[in-house]
Specification:
7 strands
Length: about 190
């Protein structure tokens, strides 16, 4: 077995509004910026792909069986075009530091054929910037945005490596409930 992931749901009717309000007050330095994008600007495309790889390749994977990723700009453009052709919207909330470098992101994909739900994709903060609440902040900012943007939305669903305690703690506090566990294997044929 390579890893175990949990599939979880956050029902918006069950959001802890007090916690959301508290996390929304987390401050970022004034020279930092939060940017929401549907298509990554060309000038940040390489950096975003490198950041994806950095986050994915530094996630703890059970039994130390690491499968390195290599997310290339052409992969991102292919994915963006695919979602666009399907009528889906891919929202990425990017946190940039005072040097205009990506230090965190969170993203969701909305499929208009399933207006009652939205998929939470990658969320991650550069380890040098962890411990400041930025992961919590960007998650609740994007939740607020999608609640406003998609009136019929009932829940957010996501999958997480069960050894990624940081994101599991955030998700548990937000109210995500585990629906099932997925076991991932690589089989030589």
């Amino acid at each position: 077995m390579i890893s175990q992931t949990s599939e979880s749901r956050l029902y918006l009717d069950n959001l802890n509004q007090e916690l959301i309000a508290k996390w929304n007050k987390i401050q970022i330095p004034p020279e930092y910026s939060l940017v929401i994008v549907e298509v990554i600007e060309e000038e940040f495309l390489n950096e975003l792909c490198e950041f994806y790889d950095f986050l994915n390749n530094n996630t703890t994977i059970e039994n130390n069986n690491e499968i390195p990723t290599n997310y290339l700009p052409e992969n991102r453009r292919f994915d963006e075009n695919l979602y666009k052709q399907l009528g889906s919207t891919w929202l990425t909330l990017v946190l940039k530091n005072n040097n205009n470098r990506i230090i965190g992101l969170t993203e969701m994909i909305f499929d208009p054929k399933e207006p009652h739900r939205i998929r939470q994709n990658l969320t991650g903060i550069d380890p040098k910037y962890r411990g400041n609440g930025y992961g919590r902040l960007i998650k609740v900012k994007l939740i607020g945005l999608v609640k406003e943007k998609y009136a019929d939305l009932k829940y957010i669903y996501t999958g997480n490596n069960i050894t990624n305690q940081s994101i599991l703690n955030i998700n548990n506090k937000l109210g995500y409930k585990t629906e099932n566990i997925v076991y991932n294997y690589i089989i030589d044929l």
